[in-house]
Amino acid sequence: MTSKSLSFKTLTLHDIQPLFGGQDVRLQANGEVRVHIVTPREKARSNKYRLTIEAEKLKEIDNLLTEVEFEEIETQDRPGEPDEARPKITVHYPSGEKVEKEKWANDEHPRFDKIYNWLIQLAKETEEKGTPDIATN
Fold it and tell me: Can you tell me the mean pLDDT for 41-50?
């Protein structure tokens, strides 16, 4: 699948909290996935993985972005609680436009969460099935 048949060029999730770790996910329209996973304090480690996903899975997230009307998502702008994470999802479009949405971890937002949970699942799949990305480690 090429970027011409998808609405996005790149889809990213930045979800690494300094004290608790997390993951960053980068999905390209060609199916290439790169994931950076950071585990918390006692067993602190940072691992990177890569995987190429199939066209059907790309179309799934593309349809989900449309379904939740990603560009129209509005989240609560408030001060964060101590150590509260604030995941950010960014969509880069073929036109060069970029749309970013952030949400405080303790806030519920079903539309944002659908995309977030899909990307978290992709991170897990990439860690399990992917190969270590030693080029960027």
Answer: 82
* Cβ(6)–Cβ(29) below 8 Å: yes
Q: Using the 8-state DSSP alphabet, how is residue 5 labeled?
A: G
> Residue range 80-98: average pLDDT?
94
Tell me the residue length of the chain: 137
DSSP string, 86-109: --EEEEE-TTS-EEEEE--TTS--
Q: What are phi and psi of 10, to 5 degrees?
A: -145, 140
Quick one: pLDDT at residue 137? 46
Partners of 36 in the β-ladder: 24, 48
pTM attached to this predicted model: 0.90
